[in-house]
Amino acid sequence: MVDDDEELVELVTEYLRREGFDTEAVHDGEAGLTRALSGEHSLIVLDVMLPGIGGFEVLRRIRASASPAARVPILMLTARGEEIDRVMGLEWGADDYLAKPHSPQELLARVRAMLRRVRLDREAHQPVPEPEPAHSASTPQSQRLATQHLHVGDVELDGAARMARIGGEPLDLTAVEFELLALLLSHAGEVVTREAVSREVFDRPLTHFDRALDVHISNLRRKLGTPADSSERIKTVRGIGYVFARV
């Protein structure tokens, strides 16, 4: 955790430790960047407002680094009501955001959902694959789908290897984008509601002011590019959701 609110950090840290997490906390941007680039962490919780180097600059430097930290999930903490902070954080490489003030329980839920994606990435890159565990009813569908092989037009997703390709060329996707693509490809030609996407990918209900889904869809569209016929691969059904167009 990188946050200068020491009282809040102490509260949250104690709560996470009781839930079985190993945690470390620093209270300024310079220290946060140094510790993040060590590559010793599975997830980073990063406040926007920090003394010294601000949270956005810390985020930018982490994502631009050659360190293993460049691919570590980052949860940004933003001021409630500051939509520009939420959008900027997502566009610059954050995986999700949480508005302050927040409860330790809400932070824990976000952390668990993000670490499930980390676990899938690690399992996919094990030298010797372990037997796949039975999926419980609580496992989001997108994470179950993200272990399959899906192919629609020139877009291919290999869940076992956690790889996506377009026209045979690898796509550099974040864990969130990978699960978004898996969910949409599995329902190609069908409308997937925004509520369903939020529950399956982010493991939470959609709220009115939540911009995470919009920004991640926009980033995924940009990475997929526009096909030769100039039609969108991911079409928005206004007020309802999204559909991945079949060729």
List its traits.
9 helices, Rossmann fold, four-stranded antiparallel β-sheet, three-stranded parallel β-sheet, 247 residues, globular, alpha+beta, Arc Repressor Mutant, subunit A, single chain
CATH class wording of the largest domain: Alpha Beta
Order of helices and strands: HHEHEHEHHEEEEHEHHEE
Oligomer: single chain
Distance between the termini: 45 Å
CATH homology superfamily of the largest domain = Response regulator
Uncertain runs: 127-138
Biggest β-sheet, characterized? 4 strands, antiparallel
Q: What is the strand content?
A: 15-25%
Structural class: alpha+beta
Q: Helicity range of the residues?
A: 40-55%
In words, what does this structure look like?
The chain has 247 residues and is of the alpha+beta class. 40% of the residues lie in helices and 16% in strands. The chain contains nine helices and ten strands. It has helices spanning 6-18, 29-36, 55-64, 83-91, 104-124, 141-145, 175-186, 194-202, 212-224; strands at residues 44-47, 74-79, 96-100, 149-152, 155-158, 163-166, 169-170, 192-193, 234-237, 241-244. Strand 9 (234-237) and strand 10 form a beta hairpin. Helix 4 (83-91) runs parallel beside helix 9 (212-224), helix 7 packs across helix 8 (194-202) and helix 7 (175-186) packs across helix 9 (212-224).
